[in-house]
Amino acid sequence: MSSSDSSEYNLFSSSLASYLDRKILILLRDGRKLLGMFHSFDQYANIVLEGTSERVMVGNLYCDIPLGLYVIRGENVVLIGERESTEEELLPHMTCVSVAEIKRAQKADKDAAELKGSMRKRMEFVDFD
Fold first, then answer.
1. Residue 25: per-residue pLDDT
2. Which one of 22, 31, 80, 104 has the fewest CB atoms closer than 10 angstroms to its CB?
């Protein structure tokens, strides 16, 4: 490892250290959002969260699905941010729903996207220009 690589690891490690024992939000490569207490990390930016929940949002609905203790591989992390406070952090029009309801909304959203895609494929022959 060159000295520049070493300094990059040190910089990254020190910035992660600033989040220790704080409530954070992590955005993963697959688009999931995890909330929890940042407890540990290693040189590969693997992260351990305690009291983790996954925030699922579909339209104006959201749900925090409890996951407990969670280990995240560093390569999957896109963004990390500290949660300011326990005050309401979502827009007022967002409605908290049950896990079952958010799963139904996710399925309906996925089905609508698939239908839209299949309709677009069927209409490729039409020239709208």
1. 93
2. 31
Sign for the CA dihedral angle at 27, 29, 30, 36 comes to: negative
Closest CA to 54 of 45, 63, 44: 63
Q: Kindly state the tokens that stand for 21.
A: 């024992």
Check residue 45 and report its DSSP letter. Answer: -
Are the C-beta atoms of 46 and 70 separated by less than 8 Å?
A: no
List strands edge to edge, sheet with 33-41.
Answer: 77-82, 23-28, 33-41, 47-58, 61-72, 95-96
Please give the residue that has the higher pLDDT: either 92 or 31.
31
CA distance 30 to 92: 26
Q: Using CA atoms, how far apart are residues 77 and 49, in angstroms rounded to an integer?
A: 13
Cβ-in-10-Å burial (0-12, 13-18, 19+) of 47 comes to buried
pLDDT tens digits along 65-87: 999 999 999 999 999 988 876 55
Residue with tokens 């996954």: 54
